Protein: ABC transporter permease
Amino acid sequence: MSEVSTVENAGLVPAQRRRPSGGGGLGRYLVIRALLIIPTVFILVTLVFLLMRTTGDPITAAQGGRLPPEQLAERIHAAGYDRPLLVQYGDYLANVLRGDFGTTLSDNRPVTEVLVTYGTATLELAVYALIVAFLVGIPLGMLAAYLRDRFGDAVLRVFAILCYATPVFFAGLLLKLVFAIKLGVLPVSGRASTGTELNLQLLEGKTGIYLVDALRLGDPAAVVDVLQHAVLPAVALGLLTAGIFLRLVRTNVIGTLGTEYVDAARSRGVSEYRLVRKHAYRPALIPIVTVIGLQIALLLGGAVLTETTFEWKGLGFQLAEYLRARDFVAVQGIVALLAVIVAVTNFVVDVLAALIDPRVRY
Structure:
């Protein structure tokens, strides 16, 4: 055996020999994750279509018993719902690729118009809820880690369990009862008061995001009014995720506090508070990024109940209304869009996680 090979086998030539053969760079990882969006969205859209058809055709579901059989049959034939299911599915996929999700049966509106009109309201609520989740979950998680195994830690852990175990509609009702009805300090429902709503609707080039439109309006009273209406629904929905963030941050901060470099800092006399605040919390935030994608799906699911509880007219509120009307064309379009949002959000989260922590690329 040559001297060079002996040195290599002894592990004295590091670098290339030790790199994992299956590893890949950031570019390859991003391309793979982007390509995975296509089958994910395809499967989700297909499942939505098939589940909606388990009840029969949408027209019979919405109008059955209200129209004479002859008129019902005419409408079914005109809409093409009497054709083979495979043909309907092919047409549906072709329309979706063109951005056409059909026309609602209850109010005869293009589903894309419904998505654009009410989607901004749901987006605004989800952003508010995430802000609440971060502001509550991360600091309290760090505090729980600092108070590990003490009374305060136990209280915070119970609080976290209550946050994600309490049904969001029940939390919403409690918040309304205390802060809107009992104390009267916050509005009961809606996205803004009637006067502010009218002013925002008259604004040219409105975005549909009330806070942005209120700022563009230049009226401080309108901005305050919009924020006051957002507090209770944002807290009700945000606490659902805040409890998960609290437990996750606590667990990871405690794990980081047990690492060697933290022990070295502790041996130099660094206080426990400074260790948590300066050294342990940043590594503990990496898992938060990786679970945000899952939390977006949770927030969108909770938005249906939150928007209904607070009459926040977003996609969740409209979805409940269309379900009552048995308008399965509208339901199909809204659920398909929510599925696409979840898939794309998970991709974005994967990208952020790969940029923060290169280990996820392997």
In short: The chain has 15 helices and no strands. The CA atoms of residues 253 and 281 lie 6 Å apart. The radius of gyration is 26 Å.
